[in-house]
Amino acid sequence: MPDTAAATVSSIAPYIDIEAVIRPTFSADGKRFAYLSDASGTHQIWTRVLAGGVAQRLTDMEEPVGALAYSPSSHDLLFTTDCGGDERHQFWLLRDGEREPVALTDDPSTVHAWGSWSPDGTRIAYSANARSKQDMDVYVMDVATRTTTCVHTAAGYRDVLAYFPDGESLLVRDWSGGPHDQVLQRLMIRTGSVENLLPHSGRAEYRAVRMRRDGTGFHVLCDQNCDHFRIGFVPADGGAVQWLVEESGTSIEAMAVTGDGRMAYVVNDQGWHRLCIRDAAGGQDRCVQGLPPGIVGSLAWVPGTDTLVFPFEGARTPPSIWAARAADAQAAALVESDAGVLSPADFIEPEVCVVTSFDGLGVPCFVYRPATPPPPAGYPVIVIVHGGPAMTWSSNFRGDVQYLASRGIMVVAPNVRGSTGYGRRYHELDDKYLRMDSVRDLYAVRQWLDGRADVDGGRVGLFGRSYGGFMVLAGLTGYPGSWKLGVDFYGIANFHTLLQTTGPWRRDLRAAEYGDPHADSELLADISPIHRMQRLQAPLLIVHGMDDPRVTPGESEMLYSVLRGLGKPVQYLRIPHEGHGFARRSNRHAVFATFESFLDKHL
Asked: Which fold has domain 344-602?
């Protein structure tokens, strides 16, 4: 029978226990900030004054906290929770000075996607699928009375990015064309009418928007009419977009803008981030100094100050919160995570190697080479494939990777074609009928490892989560003699059943990436690993959260049943009350203790 989660302690546990401090948000007066920490075992809200002092824990919710946002007119704090990772988030309000939050929504069957506070702090705007489970309509709520009005209905997915400064209209992002083919719209609250903004040809993705408080327009981070993401200013009078920041051959990953025009932005430098500041008066941009190698999650200026605050992490820096002042462009940690008994100084920083694939394409790979010398036969290797597929492996912190390196196991994390961070052209190289080219990239990485003198070619395993789990299954069945083992966390086995069972609000978004279940039925069957399981040779570990709304547990249940019927070596761990990932530390202990013992047995 499949296993279920149980409290387990293992040698990987200290790496899993490292605290993650994320998502800082500031009060409108700039005096207090709140953030999430999982020191208690799940992400809960903590707060502290900016000037210093002891942090206080604000919430003790039964579920992990998701988004959080201060009111623009008080210290009231809005936050979200779901149930067991089912992504049907509900809104809560924590009044200033009170300890018990008040539920603003109470419909556990509905997805509520957080949007924005109104400029005066009296209303919130958001999207939800209350009317139709496959469509996200736009709602406005009066916070004091909790009176809710649906102000716009339409087919497809959309979210609210911001209120316009007049408080009478909303900036909405329409995803009807797919997750990377979006449209920005201005929605008039009273009439529900929409105006399409930034007309363009081809696809475009809008990652961030920052309104100018004076109403003169907004800044946008997007790849409209460009292979990479850049920052533009959109005038309110309808004039042409003014492109302000762009880097040749790479993308801008995040931005923040003050009311007077001072800007901060993040440049992607081959998976590491460079943080820059541009003064309102112009002049030469300055790079922030004092940051270790790593990535910046988001950027925000503290209201009324020249201080920039951002979540930061790196291969040797667990997730924490940092600050930098525009005056000296010098960074320092504001809230550091607790690494427990481990010393981050002993962690491994990766190097990037480029592997030539079957068609000559260069595939970047992050290589974590253990500090200890290789054994005579070479290092065993775990190849980790990221999810998405529209994601990227970068220099972020991974406790499991550092654990593997500490055991003398090399980790190689490729950004196969289809990964983001290398431009839209690279990102679209695995679309639909090109899907299996990314699996060929994975095999090219496997062949490249055979050419390394420091690698034991007979001990190379595959590990992936979500879409990365599909890559594991596709790699194991596509090149069955090449891998020592496979580890599949909540992966896709059958694209037809995935599109039938995934949350209806995201079904069309996934079909835009993988293929239409009717028009592309033959393609979906051809790329689904479930139809090739007889080719599996390596032992496989499957782990899945039982409340996963994205890749539902049926994918792993079906996969386990098929492999059991074929007499293949398979182990399956079910994790109750978890979604698309493992949000509870106790469950992470069970998952990674099983992972550890699986490696001990098979690698």
From this structure: Rossmann fold (3.40.50)
